[in-house]
Task: inverse folding
């Protein structure tokens, strides 16, 4: 296993005592509910007065910018439901059910590409779900061929073509096929390696499944490999999750996403199969998080922000260091300034100054496309204030700091005056040591990086007064 020297850009610098950056009482006080800011404004601000015509107009306007494209394809199918899941998915074992869906995806591609200059480079491609590896190898090939025919896929070594993989539904032949299709980055869902936890979440996944795929991915020279973990699941303890982390560190992935499980059974029916009494207490959950950050930073991973970690040589770390890291609906991205076109049920597009979302209901999605129309059911065109605040929140989430002078220059405003009310709202966080002001630089401290969602909320003018019903807790 390669162990990297600890990077100075990590928010928990192991050169200093870990307890200097960790104040449990402070963390608990600021651990409120709030958005993850994969977009600003968040999807709660989208409205149904925004429709397909508004989205097509935005697509056409975007051609004047000559920005590269990012394509997201949502595959909603899974063979089996995991009880923790909050994704838009359809459980079935019949892969033939994907055929009509792929046909409608193609219709959506045709309708969308009519309004795009398809000479624009597709720098990013991401298949998510559901479980994209639900598709057969032939169906995957067919989908790639359709995407290439409609948009023109890239063979550039700098492209970022990623797919989410369930290790229970893939093997070494799957990886070899994905490589021939042009994918160069994969993300494996692991969640936890403890058998008791796996049984409680209905996801039995022995380590050997993950390890075999990782070995093959390294042999095939996939550029980057991510593992998804979740803390806060039933029966997890600090000790049990530390054991999972030790095994994961041995596997040596380039990136790790360690998500906070948000138990919201009133919104997500599968979560009703999880007993409240089996979940770790708030104290235990924080202990798991603290130990996770300690173990991963000591193993040489850089804490990008929130729940993302990466090795110092990974493109995410390089992008953060160079100030080009971006945040979108798939999380952190090293490819800045792309127009994101979302395809499939529930998919969201971010094109120029608009967001557009497809229906979460499959029948409604199919009905629109069968009528020869884009399936957009809601969205939002951003105001000038929205655009400015989106820029500021994204830089805060990605850089862990805000350069007010740069914001002033970029938007032709006096940023300190423009955000005077916001800066006043951050005074308490500054007193508590979450953020420091050094001239025009507003910088999150190590503990502030962990609570970066709270800092971002100060800039959010769309935030509802009660965030507890619609958003998960920060930690």
Result:
């Amino acid at each position: 296993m390669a162990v990297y020297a600890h990077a100075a850009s990590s928010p928990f610098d192991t050169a200093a005592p870990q307890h200097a950056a960790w104040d449990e009482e402070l963390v608990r006080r600021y651990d409120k509910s709030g958005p993850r800011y994969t977009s600003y404004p968040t999807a709660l601000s989208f409205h149904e007065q925004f429709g397909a015509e508004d989205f097509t107009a935005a697509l056409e306007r975007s051609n004047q910018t000559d920005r590269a494209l990012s394509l997201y394809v949502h595959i909603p199918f899974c063979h089996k439901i995991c009880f923790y899941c909050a994704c838009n998915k359809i459980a079935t074992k019949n892969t033939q059910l994907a055929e009509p869906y792929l046909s409608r995806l193609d219709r959506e591609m045709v309708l969308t590409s009519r309004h795009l200059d398809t000479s624009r480079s597709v720098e990013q491609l991401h298949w998510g779900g559901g479980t994209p590896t639900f598709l057969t190898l032939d169906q995957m090939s067919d989908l790639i061929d359709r995407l290439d025919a409609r948009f023109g896929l890239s063979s550039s070594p700098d492209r970022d073509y990623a797919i989410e993989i369930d290790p229970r539904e893939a093997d070494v032949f799957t990886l070899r096929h994905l490589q021939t299709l042009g994918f160069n980055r994969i993300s494996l869902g692991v969640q936890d390696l403890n058998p008791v936890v796996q049984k409680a979440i209905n996801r039995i996944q022995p380590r050997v499944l993950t390890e075999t795929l990782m070995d093959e991915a390294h042999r095939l020279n996939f550029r980057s490999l991510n593992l998804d973990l979740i803390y806060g699941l039933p029966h997890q303890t600090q000790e049990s999750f530390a054991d999972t982390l030790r095994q994961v560190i041995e596997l040596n992935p380039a990136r790790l996403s360690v998500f906070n499980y948000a138990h919201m059974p009133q919104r997500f029916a599968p979560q009703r199969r999880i007993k409240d009494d089996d979940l770790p207490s708030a104290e235990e959950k924080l202990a798991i998080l603290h130990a996770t950050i300690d173990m991963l930073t000591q193993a040489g991973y850089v804490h990008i922000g929130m729940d993302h970690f990466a090795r110092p040589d990974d493109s995410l770390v390089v992008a953060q260091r160079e100030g080009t890291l971006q945040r979108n609906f798939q999380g952190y991205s090293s490819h800045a300034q792309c127009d994101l076109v979302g395809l499939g049920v529930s998919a969201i597009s971010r094109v120029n100054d608009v967001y557009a979302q497809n229906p979460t209901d499959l029948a409604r999605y199919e009905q629109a496309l069968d009528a020869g129309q884009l399936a957009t059911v809601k969205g939002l065109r951003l105001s000038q204030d929205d655009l400015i605040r989106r820029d500021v929140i994204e830089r805060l989430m990605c850089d862990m700091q805000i350069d007010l002078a740069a914001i002033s220059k970029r938007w032709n405003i006096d940023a300190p005056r423009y955000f005077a009310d916001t800066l006043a709202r951050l005074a308490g966080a500054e007193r508590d040591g979450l953020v420091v002001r050094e001239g025009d630089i507003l910088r999150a401290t190590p503990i502030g990086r962990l609570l970066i969602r709270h800092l971002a909320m100060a800039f959010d003018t769309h935030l509802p007064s009660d965030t507890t019903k619609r958003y998960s807790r920060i930690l």
Summary: Residues 1-20 have pLDDT under 50 and may be disordered. The two ends are 30 Å apart (CA to CA). The longest strand covers residues 68-75. The chain has 18 helices and 19 strands.
